[in-house]
Amino acid sequence: MFKYRSEKHGNTPIKVYELFERHIEYKRGKIANQTLDKYHGVLSNLKTYFRERYAGNLTESDCEKFKSWLSEKLAPITLKQYLSAIKTAWEWAIARKMVSENPWIEIVKQVPRGKVKKPQPFTAQEVQRIIQHFRTHPEYSYYADYAEFLLCTGCRIEEAIALTWGDVTEDCSQIWFGKAYNRGDLRKLRQVKRVLCH
After folding, report:
1. How far apart are CA 165 and CA 186, in angstroms?
2. Cβ(104)–Cβ(93) under 8 Å?
3. 97 lies in which domain range?
4. Looking at residue 15, what DSSP letter applies?
5. Is the residue at 89 inside a domain?
6. Using an 8 Å Cβ cutoff, are 56 and 8 in contact?
7. In a 10 Å sphere around its CB, with 0-12 CB exposed, 13-18 middle and 19+ buried, how is residue 176 labelled?
8. Looking at 110, 138, 173, which one is the last position of a domain?
9. Which partner for 178 in 48, 157, 168, 192 could form a disulfide, CB atoms 3.0-4.6 Å apart?
10. In terms of domains, do 140 and 57 share one?
């Protein structure tokens, strides 16, 4: 005979997706919008797969089956991120006595990180050809200086548009990239980059 546990938040059992929704609400305002979007992707999959299941009744076997189902739709690196987010939500819920156990811990360990492709930068000749193409294009020539700046500094668009004159030395010999726009939000970069201008 299989015995189900009934975990409760207050006097009401909490469903799988409700637990994750509450975790999202807790995180709102503390994480970047991009991460929030990813959490909503996780939530959508939890709703689709677990439907009305209660969080306290989940076993490792249930989580393993969910991982297998999800792995057919996601790349390994994204799968790892999704499962890690769920595991963290359960840890948060345990601290608030919504559930008593975390069945996701071993599941996350089973997923390999996946290989991240090494960047293949343009050669110096390719950079010059791209810039030249912009300069001579009848419609997009006004982007030439911007494209040259991006290609020569190696910065990302969201870093470039966050720049202010305070990020550039007086003689324009160095640029500091320490912030970026992410979906309309200005945020500090974890690692500040310095670029020497020639």
Report:
1. 16
2. no
3. 8-110
4. B
5. yes
6. yes
7. middle
8. 110
9. 192
10. no
Dist. CA 186–CA 178, nearest whole Å = 11
82 and 25 within one domain: yes
| CA distance linking residue 86 with residue 20, whole number of Å | 7
User: Do 47 and 84 reside in the same domain of the chain?
Assistant: yes
| Six token digits for residue 189 | 């970069």
Clarify whether residues 78 and 164 are in a common domain: no
Q: Are residues 84 and 155 in the same domain?
A: no
Position 9 pLDDT exceeds 60: no
3-state secondary structure of 180: strand
Q: What's the token pair of residue 145? A: 């200086």
Q: Is residue 164 part of a domain?
A: yes
Cα 181 from Cα 161, distance rounded (Å):
7
86 close to 104: Cβ distance less than 8 angstroms: yes
73-125 per-position pLDDT tens digit: 998 889 999 999 999 999 999 999 999 999 999 999 888 876 667 778 889 99
